[in-house]
Amino acid sequence: MTDSETVVAQADARTAELAGNLDVLLGRIDAACRAAGREPGSVRLLPVTKFFPAADVAILYGLGRREFGESREQEATGKVAELDDRRDIRWHMIGRLQRNKARVVARWAHTVHSVDSERLATALDKGALAALDAGERTGPLRVLLQVSLDEDPERGGVGQNDLDRLADQVAAAEGLQLGGLMAIPPLDADPHSAFARLATLHTLLLARHPGATELSAGMSGDLESAIEHGSTVVRVGTALMGTRPITSG
Ligand SMILES: *Cc1c(COP(=O)(O)O)cnc(C)c1O
């Protein structure tokens, strides 16, 4: 094979690999919905493309996906720029975010899943309003509140006691829209009890904020349990993309 034939063959192989993984994964989500007595289609897949190149996102776009999750601001901002001719992509910021990156992320993010403090919410509100002003976005920034299921401040997430106040702040912010909740189960916890607790917090939130219907929960290893407990969107990296070159992100 010539060099260019090799490149084409590699791209074809990656397309086949991602298409196969996607099929298996959609089947898993479907089966989990049925097992939980939920409507198949009531849970969305958010492919998590961190550590993988924009070329992979383009392949998944070709396979019909329109939402993608990224966890590192710099890497994401680069990919968004590379793919900016695909106007209908909805980018989700799912990782920890520093306040000084709020302005940049507010330019490209449809939804931020990882808001866990009043200061970050304030920075994102300002960023979203500035982006609206500059014509860089057309609607408010959708925000999910990341809740801590073990009250360990090191791992991120707002504690139960501060959740109502943060939710009210986001709901009142002109540049933000309160979308719902997100959580990552504690490393050593039983996912079932963690997701059950998350479901309770979501029910309480919905009583105050009926529009906050999104529940972002479930990853490659625990999506069945999350779906059983009411997840509306699963964030899946490894089971779709393969093993990440570095796993600390
Ligand atoms: C990387 C990441 C995921 C995806 O995890 P996998 O186990 O690879 O599916 C989900 N959520 C967040 C916040 C992540 O950073």
TrEMBL record:
Keywords: Pyridoxal phosphate. InterPro entries: Ala_racemase_N, PLP-binding_barrel, PyrdxlP_homeostasis. This is Pyridoxal phosphate homeostasis protein. Residues 42-245 form the Alanine racemase N-terminal domain. The keyword Iron-sulfur does not apply. Pfam families: Ala_racemase_N (PF01168). Belongs to the pyridoxal phosphate-binding protein YggS/PROSC family. It comes from the Bacteria. The modification N6-(pyridoxal phosphate)lysine is found at K50. Pyridoxal 5'-phosphate (PLP)-binding protein, which is involved in PLP homeostasis. CDD domains: PLPDE_III_YBL036c_like. HAMAP family: PLP_homeostasis (MF_02087).
